[in-house]
Amino acid sequence: DSGVTQTPKHLITATGQRVTLRCSPRSGDLSVYWYQQSLDQGLQFLIQYYNGEERAKGNILERFSAQQFPDLHSELNLSSLELGDSALYFCASSATSGGPGGEGEQFFGPGTRLTVL
Amino acid sequence: KNEVEQSPQNLTAQEGEFITINCSYSVGISALHWLQQHPGGGIVSLFMLSSGKKKHGRLIATINIQEKHSSLHITASHPRDSAVYICAARYNNNDMRFGAGTRLTVKP
């Protein structure tokens, strides 16, 4: 058990809908990372928050957004869902801010499996 | 362009064999991560390194900054090592890119 929790575990929805995925980091960790893993594209980095602020942005679509709250939990919002958004969504947490001189080990949550029908 | 190349794509070994998985990246990085993904889908971080070499049990990770190359070695492999191994490069612009993964099967 990594100490990172994600809810829900599974989510089935229809095209055009909006969903929210939730992540609670390990106690004391300030960074939260979001990743998408699909069969055809593998793992992709979406976005990182550090202590409530956006720290780094990857291949996140404009239909997707995220935020980190004062209690450090994070939510990933996916809207106008398409079939291609079906994937495993992982969050990970780290104690450090990441990047040059600040990179730390990441602890991964169990993932949320999103199926868009 | 921030690319990560990983090889081999698939690897089958007999129990006890020494295993090497390779990872190369294109430009300057701040860190290189090695991850293990189990058949159930869970991801575990094995190593995070920015220089030199790290060892944890039967696992060893090395990185050569000049050659932009990292290797993951498994000594005395065991069937429970069967998993997908993924390298990930954290670039200096804070982007993070993943290799396609190496599917390792260790037969008893």
What can you tell me about this protein's structure?
The complex is a heterodimer of chains A (117) and B (108). In chain A, 0% of the residues lie in helices and 51% in strands. With 117 residues, chain A is mostly beta strands. In chain A, the strands form 2 sheets. In chain A, strands 2, 4, 5, 6, 9, 10 and 11 form a 7-stranded mixed β-sheet that branches. In chain A, a hairpin with a 3-residue loop joins strand 4 and strand 5. Chain A is globular. In chain B, a hairpin with a 2-residue loop joins strand 6 and strand 7. Chain B is globular and about 45 Å long. The chains are: A mainly beta (117), B mainly beta (108). The A-B interface holds A 2, 33, 42-45, 48, 55-56, 58, 88, 90, 92, 98-108, 110-111, 113 and B 30-31, 33, 35, 41-45, 48, 50, 86, 88, 90, 92, 94-98, 100-101.
Q: What is the multimeric organization of the chains shown? A: heterodimer
What do the pLDDT scores of chain A average to?
94
**Helical segment count of chain B:** 0
Beta-strand residue fraction of chain A: over 45%
Uncertain ranges of chain A: none
Brief rundown of the structure:
The complex is a heterodimer of chains A (117) and B (108). Chain A has 117 residues and is an all-beta fold. In chain A, 0% of the residues lie in helices and 51% in strands.
